[in-house]
Design goal:
Elements lengths: L1 H6 L4 H22 L4 E8 L2 E2 L4 E3 L4 E8 L4 E5 L14 E3 L6 E3 L4 E8 L3 E6 L12 E6 L1
Parallel strand pairs: 1-4, 3-10
Antiparallel strand pairs: 1-2, 4-8, 5-7, 5-9, 6-8, 9-10
The protein binds copper (II) ion.
The site of copper (II) ion has 7 residues, from loops.
Length: 143
């Protein structure tokens, strides 16, 4: 027993326990952050976005992967829900906010956001694409 105590001095134990606790809490928070995003594949063509409206659950990180198939299109959305104050708190938190995402024909564009506040968020095409351009819209619904 004496030899064992020499080999594993008691003073080390609390430190390593503290280290373990730090390690566990770190790996816990990292895991919380890397919770996989919900991926929604969308195609954009004259003059609609496929499978709109999209329903997502509050608190979900969403990746919209949009491909324009027939022509260049765009994607413009307000971070504030429909009917909300334009200067109100953002309900969708974008990883890299843009006024208008350009959707190049044949390229897949990823738009990532956190769905923070329930509501309906209307988006529209912001790249003039033809006669029906103004009517090219869709909705994201955060439940
Ligand atoms: Cu358009």
């Amino acid at each position: 027993m004496k030899n064992l105590a020499k080999r594993f001095p008691v003073s080390i134990v609390p430190k390593s326990l503290l280290g373990l606790a730090i390690f566990l809490s770190l790996s816990w928070s990292v895991r919380a952050q890397v919770q996989p995003a919900q991926v929604i594949e969308v195609t954009a063509k004259k003059y609609e976005y496929s499978s709109s409206p999209f329903h997502v659950k509050i608190g979900t990180t969403v990746q919209l992967k949009i491909t324009a198939t027939d022509h260049d299109h765009g994607f413009k959305i307000s971070a504030v829900q429909d009917g909300g104050l334009t200067n109100g708190a953002a309900g969708l938190i974008f990883s890299s906010p843009q006024d208008c995402w350009q959707l190049k024909k044949g390229e897949r564009t990823t738009i990532e956001f956190l769905a923070q506040t329930p509501g309906t968020y209307t988006f529209k095409c912001c790249h003039t694409c033809g006669l029906g351009h103004r009517g090219m819209k869709g909705q994201i619904v955060v439940d």
